[in-house]
Amino acid sequence: MALDTREIYVTALKNTHALEMQALQIMERQVERLTRYPEMEEALRRHIEETHGQRTRLEEALQSLGDSPSAIKEGILGFVGNMMALGHTPAQDEILKNTYANHAFENFEIAAYESLLTIGEAAGQGGSLTGFRQSLQEEEAMARRVRELIGPTTKRYVDLTIAGEKADR
Amino acid sequence: MALDTREIYVTALKNTHALEMQALQIMERQVERLTRYPEMEEALRRHIEETHGQRTRLEEALQSLGDSPSAIKEGILGFVGNMMALGHTPAQDEILKNTYANHAFENFEIAAYESLLTIGEAAGQGGSLTGFRQSLQEEEAMARRVRELIGPTTKRYVDLTIAGEKADR
Predict the structure, then answer these.
(1) pLDDT in tens, B82-92
(2) Which of B109, B107, B98 is nearest to B149 (CA)?
């Protein structure tokens, strides 16, 4: 059975909503554990706030179509489950792996929003797209911020490690 | 026990090597399955070739330090295992999930190389870093290419789906 563009759009909205719910869990878990990397902690706290707004935009778009977020889609969870696992893996280099994973995760979200915008345009759903363009810009800004922090975070990890101090998170 | 910078660098080289080995598996699996998305197939084929060169650079750096790649590190595999699973999940929107995951994966690698360069500089390992800067540029180019393809790939997915044709890969 062929789907129509509206059905494809609703599925994309639900998948993106599930992704944002996972994003919140991953970031909240990390931020609780961070002690030695205050710039990363601040970036995560700011983006958690933004993510609540992104989630609301998706819920409003679903409501305007007479639908609502459903249980988390397995495909998305399959990807993200491991990111969550990374978020609380006790490892000497936990901060590095989380930083790489955060950079990957933001870029997963960037791709998901760019795709959602394409689907929304095909489905003639202009009304919600301004908000999703803002969400995309927020994800891009967070991806840039994480990337800026890769070098300084790695340098601090190396310095703390060779000093024999706590460096993991 | 405190580690020294050389030990941290060797660990980073081994982790990045494990990451590239996984990259090859993920891309080779996807590329075999792609039938309706020739631009993505071409991008993956080109990047598979580059990845062989990236892998060689890492092996040469390890050899120059009297070391060799070891078994795949669990931390990296934990992240990447799921990407692989995505690579052969039979789903109506397999191509979309793979595209998002490829964009995420390239950006995981970008973070890993940027971090490796920082560690290599701290360890005074200038000799290998020119090659790793090239690897980083290759990952950035592939990330850009995947991003360029998100819109056209999504559009083709929508068009094929509403026409009732095979759209998944």
Answers:
(1) 555 555 567 88
(2) B98
**CA–CA gap between residue A116 and residue A136 (Å, rounded):** 10
With 0-12 / 13-18 / 19 or more C-beta atoms within 10 angstroms meaning exposed / middle / buried, residue A65 is middle
Q: Under a CB-based contact definition with an 8 Å cutoff, are residues B67 and B10 in contact?
A: yes
- Which residues on chain A are in Cβ contact (under 8 Å) with B118? 150-151, 154-155, 158
Q: Give the end-to-end CA distance of chain B in Å, rounded to a whole number.
A: 50
Q: How many CB atoms lie within 10 A of CB B17?
A: 23
In terms of Cα–Cα distance, which of A150, A142, A139, A109 is closest to A42? A142
Q: What CATH fold (topology level) applies to the domain A5-162?
A: Ferritin (1.20.1260)
Q: Are B98 and B30 in contact (CB under 8 A)?
A: yes
Q: How far apart are CA A61 and CA A67, in angstroms?
A: 9
Show the CA angle centred on residue B106, arms to residues B105 and B111, nearest 5°: 95
Asked if A85 reaches chain B (Cβ–Cβ under 8 Å), the answer is yes
Q: How far is CA A158 from each of CA A145, B6, B25, B121, rounded to the nearest angstrom?
A: 20, 10, 31, 11
- Using an 8 Å CB-CB cutoff, list chain B residues near A96: 115
Taking the C-alpha atoms of residue A151 and residue A93, their distance in angstroms, rounded to an integer, is 14
Structure ipTM: 0.92
Weakest mean pLDDT among B19-28, B79-88, B126-135: B79-88
Residue B165 to residues A6, B118, B138, Cα–Cα distance (Å): 17, 48, 34
